[in-house]
Amino acid sequence: MDSSLLRSMKVIKGLQIGCLALCGDLTNDFVKKALESFPDYEKLSLDRIPFDSHKLNKYLVQNLKSLCIGEAQRLKIDQVLVTNSETIRLYSSEFTENDLNRFLKLWIRGSNSRLKFFFTWGQPQLGGRSFNKIAILKGIKYEQIPLDGQEVYKDYISVHFRNVPLAGGFRTWRPNGTSAVIVVECKRLKFVVE
């Protein structure tokens, strides 16, 4: 085992880890060992997935407050559907409009019950410059928020909040009355549970 990892383990043994951030020029082997060595944390941030994406599943089902993956190309929408985090941020994903439509429909039916905020930067179909909102919302009942609406979501980033405008978004509901807003901007989708 890497000596710096061993030293870190000795120093923080028994402490609650708030955020395990494995970012930068770390090798895949180092990231794998760190994930195995520090199993208890509230938030997980990875620059990239260090192994086959199916091996990530055991980390996705943990009751995390936050999950952030910088290079999420290998992550499948089915894996997002079993993720048990309050906040999910996935960059460089390869989700299509059909994937996101499926995610939304399954959320409406009860999947991802702990989810409060989902963000993904994806790949529109046919190499388009932006997601097709009609394809994402196909078959979903929604109400559009006016473009001049003042509604915002307070998104907690690092140590501060920032307001995420919901104007122009689409509000949908679960049968139990829980509502969520979908905001589609270019290649980004934000999903906020209210």
UniProtKB/TrEMBL annotation:
InterPro entries per UniProt: F-box_Sdz-33, Zygotic_Embryogenesis-Asso
Limits of the Sdz-33 F-box domain: 56-118
Species for this entry: Caenorhabditis brenneri
Top-level taxonomic group: Eukaryota
Protein name: Sdz-33 F-box domain-containing protein
